[in-house]
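Protocol step 4 of 6: structure prediction from sequence.
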Amino acid sequence: MAAKREDRLTGSLEDYLETIYDLVSEHKVARVKDIARIRGVKPGSVSPAMRRLAALGLIRYEQREFIDLTSKGEARARRVVARHQILETFFRDILRMNPRAADKDACAMEHTLSTDAMDRLARLVEVLESDLGARLLDRLEAEIGGARPARGIERKSSGKKTRRVKLSELRPGENGLVKAIRARGKKRQALLELGVLPEATVRMERPAARRKGFVVMLQGFAATLTREQAEAVIVTRQA
């Protein structure tokens, strides 16, 4: 079902929400002056956007200086950030683009990336992390000429093979690098929108209440996964 007109966000408002998400994940709270600095605007121009986001129930902005995300805002921001990350990963690690250019192009495209396109990009990245994918990317590098090695290829060229396990098998405090999401349809999309993406780092925190799932850390935020979700995510353990 399409979002209600009043709930739709412009690209500019999504950018603000993404900036708030990044600040809160790093500093636990966002400030108007920091948002203005990162967005390259004057603090006075930030306030109208904050009032709009607050009216939509996405942020708490009562004090007019410190801003925090509501649970609704966090979920919405996660979706924006996830679209950005899968695009950036594709541009940087698959197409071998300069990291700064990859980030810029991801910013430009994240607002219009459809759910289906996001899913297909994630699947493509998963496939290209395989041995066959490594050979294809080597050929692409030769065709482009002078392209920098992708992070995935650098790992494969070391000759070390890391055993893949289910996310649910990680111990509390362990980090895992996501390699595949073995889910389909809405179940897969829910994981992608949480930020469970190929090449994303996830840390196992603890079993969820009543041991019905797991609490994990993604991008500085805690997220609760059901046992079924955690068993669908395939990772390699990280030091």
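Step 5 (inspection) to follow. The two ends are 42 Å apart (CA to CA).
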